[in-house]
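Schema walk-through. Below, the input block comes first and the output block second. Nothing else is stored per chain. Lengths vary across the set, and this one has 160 residues.
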Amino acid sequence: MTTECPFESNVIDAVTDGSWTESLRVHVASCDDCAAAAEVAPWLTRFAGMDERTHVLPDPAVLWLKAKVLQSSAAVERAALPITRLQIAAYLIIAAGWAAILTWKASALQAWINHFSPGHLILGATGAESTSLSLTVLVAIIALASASVGVAMHTILAEE
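--- output ---
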């Protein structure tokens, strides 16, 4: 275990101030610790005086504020996760409802849509042909359309 030389602080002060005494020069020549301190002290003094950095560190208040914002946004994301999952489930249920209606009543829907062509409108006006959808199918279509618009509006408004 080595101990520091008692003259080391005097050597550092002498290097910094330029106030060398003859006895201190003799001591530095004979003491390895003081010689190392005398050799390194000018560089350390210049290094301590450097104020420029290649990358300026941000203000701690800004770092603290960013950390708080990120922390609160992470909390919002965690809180919104169940709502997002419910929204995805609603989209899947609505898509399944549309698929079921379109496959179940495809021919009736096609006949009803073709009913609006000009030729069928003329025949329908004369009473020669009539095509209608059941009330149940019509209510299901209106309910699915309303649910589709509702979920879409919720998605659009929830992002704002």
